[in-house]
């Protein structure tokens, strides 16, 4: 049995990278005929507490992200769609997995190294959140986790923790695997193509999903390109041009090899058009969803109810195996 799970963190305003790397591939998996419980998607609001946050904003960001996920095609009628903080089993299992994980392996996580280097005060949860992420996945016995390339290491850790727990205490968890999209697994910042586009990093090279279309066009037209004038796909030698080709490829579902351009200007114009063609209808759908906030909150409440039911047997099995309750 396959079960797909992906959670999205409201740590900032969602970007084109989040859409192409995670939201859209997740939505595309919701094919007709699948059972609702084959797909578990949600808003990982607890993960937004790992770096400095504004309490009033967090709730807004969580609802905005939920609305954008639905607008991107994550149809709550076809999956279990909920807010992580509404399902207490996540934090409960997380502690059992923190007691399975080792300090050294958590410190080696690239995201921890990168994000802790950017902060004066590092929250302890930034170190431990991969255990919570493993709990998010293992609670539902998920087999496939669609994520961008930057999350592969955390998925490896979730696998390791599942296997270690199973070896030590008995077979409770299904080791999951990462499903990384073939294109756009790592969309780079348009103003600095040496680093990935991130919603928590303020940069003129980040396209936000709710940017007005003229802003989107301006950001693409101002994208940093490389020396020379030839348009070739070469992520090392020509990171800026290659990033535009990847974005255009993903937005139009055209393989990079099939794209041929003789100037940077033409490539930028077509990329801007393609991004806008994807974002404009998404923004229209979002406006409709955001106008009915109570409706969205109700959808999330119902989803949390389903998630609790789905998670309960695994949490009970894990507690029993580790010695916390009688079998
Ligand atoms: P943060 O800076 O807070 O880590 P983020 O933009 O990296 O924000 P996450 O919430 O960490 O977003 O990740 C959400 C999903 O989007 C994950 O599956 C992640 O792999 C994917 N993702 C994030 N950034 C990119 C990117 N630049 N290209 C492709 N996928 C991405
Ligand atoms: Mg990230």
From TrEMBL:
<dbReference type="InterPro" id="IPR050203">
    <property type="entry name" value="Trp-tRNA_synthetase"/>
</dbReference>
<dbReference type="InterPro" id="IPR002305">
    <property type="entry name" value="aa-tRNA-synth_Ic"/>
</dbReference>
<dbReference type="InterPro" id="IPR014729">
    <property type="entry name" value="Rossmann-like_a/b/a_fold"/>
</dbReference>
<comment type="similarity">
    <text>Belongs to the class-I aminoacyl-tRNA synthetase family.</text>
</comment>
<keyword id="KW-0648">Protein biosynthesis</keyword>
<keyword id="KW-0030">Aminoacyl-tRNA synthetase</keyword>
<dbReference type="InterPro" id="IPR002306">
    <property type="entry name" value="Trp-tRNA-ligase"/>
</dbReference>
<protein>
    <recommendedName>
        <fullName>Tryptophan--tRNA ligase</fullName>
        <ecNumber>6.1.1.2</ecNumber>
    </recommendedName>
</protein>
<keyword id="KW-0436">Ligase</keyword>
<keyword id="KW-0547">Nucleotide-binding</keyword>
<keyword id="KW-0067">ATP-binding</keyword>
<dbReference type="InterPro" id="IPR001412">
    <property type="entry name" value="aa-tRNA-synth_I_CS"/>
</dbReference>
<dbReference type="Pfam" id="PF00579">
    <property type="entry name" value="tRNA-synt_1b"/>
</dbReference>
<dbReference type="GO" id="GO:0016874">
    <property type="term" value="F:ligase activity"/>
</dbReference>
């Amino acid at each position: 049995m396959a079960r797909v799970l992906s959670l999205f963190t409201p740590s900032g305003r969602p970007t084109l990278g989040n859409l192409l790397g995670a939201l859209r591939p997740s939505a595309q998996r919701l094919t007709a005929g699948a059972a609702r419980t084959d797909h578990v998607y949600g808003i990982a609001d607890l993960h937004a507490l790992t770096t400095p946050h504004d309490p009033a904003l967090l709730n807004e960001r969580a609802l905005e992200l939920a609305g954008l996920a639905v607008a991107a095609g994550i149809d709550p009628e076809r999956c279990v769609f909920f807010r992580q903080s509404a399902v207490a089993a996540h934090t409960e299992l997380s502690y059992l997995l923190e007691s399975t994980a080792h300090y050294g392996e958590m410190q080696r996580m690239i995201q921890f190294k990168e994000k802790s280097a950017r902060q004066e005060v590092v929250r302890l949860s930034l170190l431990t959140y991969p255990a919570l992420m493993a709990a998010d996945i293992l609670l539902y016995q998920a087999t496939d986790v669609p994520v961008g390339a930057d999350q592969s290491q955390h998925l490896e850790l979730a696998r390791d923790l599942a296997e270690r727990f199973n070896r030590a205490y008995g077979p409770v968890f299904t080791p999951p695997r990462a499903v990384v999209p073939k294109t756009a697994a790592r969309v780079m910042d348009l103003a600095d193509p040496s680093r990935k586009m991130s919603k928590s990093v303020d940069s003129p090279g980040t396209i936000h999903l709710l940017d007005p279309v003229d802003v989107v066009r301006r950001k693409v037209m101002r994208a940093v390109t490389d020396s020379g004038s030839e348009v070739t796909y070469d992520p090392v030698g020509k990171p800026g041009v290659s990033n535009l080709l990847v974005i255009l490829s993903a937005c139009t579902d055209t393989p990079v090899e099939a794209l041929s351009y003789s100037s940077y200007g033409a490539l930028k114009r077509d990329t801007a058009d393609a991004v806008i063609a994807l974002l404009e209808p998404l923004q229209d759908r979002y406006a409709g969803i955001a106008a009915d906030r109570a409706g969205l909150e109700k959808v999330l409440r119902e989803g949390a109810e389903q998630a609790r039911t789905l998670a309960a047997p695994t949490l009970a099995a894990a507690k029993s195996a580790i010695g916390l309750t009688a079998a």
